[in-house]
Amino acid sequence: MRALAFALLAAGALAAQAADYAGPLFDTHLHYNQEAWDGNTGPYPPTEALARMQRNGVKAIIANSRPNAGTQTLAAARETREAGVTVVPFVRLYRNRDDYSNWFRDESIYEMVQTELARGTASGPYRGLGEFHLYESANANGPVAKKLIVLAEQKKLAVLAHVDDTAIDLLMANAPSGGQQLRIIWAHTGIGGPPVARVRALLERYPLLMGELSYRPGLTCADGKLCPEWKELILQHPGRFMVGSDTWVNQRWSAYDELMQGYRGWLGDLPPAVAQRIAWGNAAGLFGLQ
Ligand SMILES: [Zn+2]
């Protein structure tokens, strides 16, 4: 009798819990760097990387890599098409590690971007620039950073930026539109964890600003579900958020299943139509996918 009561209780608890989101995912922050695969060797050749996407229901990716050869490889691979993964290529601003702290003032980066844009990829033209980092917000005003922002707005390229909230304002101010027509995808939506009220204010000031949610401090609580203030923000702005893996080191490739499962867990706690937008629809709409 007691065993039966326990079983009924357990079943009730399970039923009360929302099911995980089960639809397609758009990984909007994927790196395919040379440590993962340099074209000849590495722990994650295209078949391995794509197997991870495929078994997690990842149907599209924003691909960028250091150097850009990794993105070119994924964009051209037969395995990518076989896995049913659409590649949306971005030009990475880094050829090597030194470029992380110099790109915003290095004229040769601007030239490299022009060359890549002219060349395109086997999956079509580049659709964005980045990811780039600004460890000091003021470098948003570096001469090359300024030129790249103008270029991005003019060519309608999205910008994947790992920056703080101050730098969002500075980058937007450098766009010809004053930020009204510049599409920034804010990597991590601020990895330093600016308050939710500040994120909300930025979303309201800049109509094309999007938040990518990997590594976002304070996003989820102990149960793996969204913390209340984040749930409120996402429900208020369901068209402004996206998810990504950020495979910046190989450890993220080895944890890819858990990362995607984590997203599916908290997405399942949202109304299904909202979950679909965050998981897939917002990015698919941005880049014209079905
Ligand atoms: Zn990244």
What would you note in describing this structure?
This protein is of the alpha/beta class. The chain contains twelve helices and eight strands. The chain has an eight-stranded parallel beta sheet, sandwiched between helices. Helix 7 links the parallel strand 5 and strand 6. The protein starts with a helix and ends with a helix. The mean pLDDT is 94. The structure holds zinc ion. The site of zinc ion has 7 residues, from strand 1.
What is this structure's SSE topology?
Elements: H1 2-16, E1 25-31, H2 46-55, E2 58-64, H3 69-76, H4 78-82, E3 86-91, H5 107-119, E4 128-133, H6 143-154, E5 158-162, H7 165-173, E6 184-186, H8 196-205, E7 210-212, H9 228-236, E8 241-242, H10 250-254, H11 256-267, H12 272-287
Parallel strand pairs: 1-2, 2-3, 3-4, 4-5, 5-6, 6-7, 7-8
This protein binds zinc ion.
Instruction: Return Rg in Å.
Output: 20 Å
Strand content: 5-15%
Q: How much helix is in the residues?
A: 40-55%
Largest sheet: 8 strands, parallel
Strand ordering within the main sheet: 1-2-3-4-5-6-7-8
Mean pLDDT over the full residue set: 94
Q: What's the overall geometry?
A: globular
Distance between termini? 52 Å
Order of helices and strands: HEHEHHEHEHEHEHEHEHHH
Category by helix and strand content: alpha/beta
Unreliable runs, pLDDT <50, ≥5 residues? Answer: none
Count helical runs.
Answer: 12
Question: Which small-molecule species are bound to the chains here?
Answer: zinc ion
InterPro entries: Metal_Hydrolase (IPR032466)
Keywords: Signal
Signal peptide: 1-18
Protein name: Amidohydrolase family protein
